[in-house]
Design brief:
Blueprint (H helix, E strand, L loop, with lengths): L1 E6 L3 E6 L4 E7 L2 E8 L2 H16 L6 H5 L2 H11 L7 H15 L9 H11 L5 H20 L9 H11 L17 H8 L4 H13 L3 H6 L5 E2 L2 E4 L8 E3 L3 H8 L10 H15 L8 H12 L4 H8 L4 H4 L7 H8 L1
Antiparallel strand pairs: 1-2, 2-3, 3-4, 5-6, 6-7
């Protein structure tokens, strides 16, 4: 029997017959916690600490133990992705995360588990890709903690990334400078000899510096007297860019529905063509850098190039500008 009992909002403090005090904390969805102390003051202090921990989200609730990351990925895909740019890329990344973490409960997700995933993934892809994987996983966990009602002491993905950075497992992002080497353009087109649509894609990017997803959406109806209308670009804007006669002819030659290709299909076809041509370390997006650099080599000014590439300023534009030594030498005379 208890000789005395004192109730607080979330805890009960009870005096035992042996003179000691038991503090017990209960809350819906959280396993009951109890502990015996020599004094009532010690029991009350411990109970307050447990209440504060719960209110601060430092207690893993039963809900967090029941929900799987697969269910959270599905929620993220339905509620968040429709309003995001680049949703298709994140959707593909969610499929990878689903394979690795889909059956894991939110409460079971640990920094060690995340670090194990990162180490295995680094055997296949570059650090930048792994960082993007973990960034998306962290975003889902953050929403679960802050907006979807699941309490966790910390975000284990952030803890894992901090540890990986300290151990220098994830290398810092290296700014790419890849351009087409002499002869690669002809080799690439030869490798695409049986795919006229992809040959046009490559030519159009080199003429316009368009992004892949912009190429997917381009239609002959987008041609204007003063250029080519780009709808819903990376920043969500619709603008008209100046284009060359070659670019105008390429777009005019397309069917009413444009290229009729998905973005991932273009990337895959480009990668296969590079392998057939024996071209290493060339990505589709590198063609945008090649096109931008060619504009400057033609003598266009920074504002003129910005009209075409739609970069916000020189700081972001210069990443896509890689003059060749030969071009600079020719200018020096």
């Amino acid at each position: 029997m208890f000789a005395h009992e004192l109730h607080t909002q979330m805890a009960s403090i009870r005096k035992l017959q042996n003179g000691k005090w038991r503090a017990q904390v209960r809350h819906s969805g959280v396993p009951s916690q109890s502990k015996v102390f020599r004094t009532k003051a010690m029991a009350e202090t411990w109970a307050r600490e447990q209440e504060q921990a719960y209110e601060s989200g430092w207690v893993t609730t039963g809900a967090a133990k029941r929900v799987t990351l697969g269910e959270l990925f599905e929620k993220y895909e339905k509620e968040v992705l429709p309003g995001k740019k680049g949703g298709n890329k994140e959707r593909s990344r969610l499929r990878l995360l689903e394979d690795a973490f889909g059956k894991v409960s939110l409460a079971q997700l640990s920094a060690d588990r995340v670090m194990g995933y990162a180490s295995a993934r680094l055997q296949l892809v570059e650090s930048d890709t792994v960082r993007r994987d973990l960034s998306l996983l962290s975003a889902v966990v953050h929403l679960a903690r802050t907006s979807w009602g699941y309490s966790l002491q910390t975000n284990p993905v952030q803890d894992a990334v901090s540890a990986l950075n300290r151990q220098r497992v994830l290398r810092r992002k290296v700014e790419r400078s890849r351009r087409l080497y002499p002869g690669e353009y002809k080799r690439l087109l030869r490798a695409l000899h049986s795919n006229e649509t992809m040959r046009k894609v490559v030519r159009l990017i080199l003429e316009t510096a368009m992004r892949r997803d912009e190429v997917v959406r381009v239609r002959p109806a987008d041609l204007r007297p003063d250029g080519l209308r780009i709808t819903d670009d990376k920043t969500g804007k619709t603008t008209t860019i100046p284009v060359s006669k070659k670019a105008r002819a390429l777009v005019s030659s397309l069917g009413v529905d444009g290229f009729g290709l998905r973005g991932d299909s273009i990337t895959q076809a480009f990668s296969r063509a590079c392998r057939r041509a024996g071209i290493e370390d060339l990505r589709l997006h590198d063609l945008r850098r090649e096109a931008t650099s060619r504009y400057f080599e033609k003598g266009l000014s920074i504002p003129e190039v910005q009209m075409i590439t739609r970069h916000s300023g020189w700081g972001s534009l210069k990443v896509y500008t890689r003059p060749t030594s030969a071009a600079v030498t020719d200018k020096l005379g």
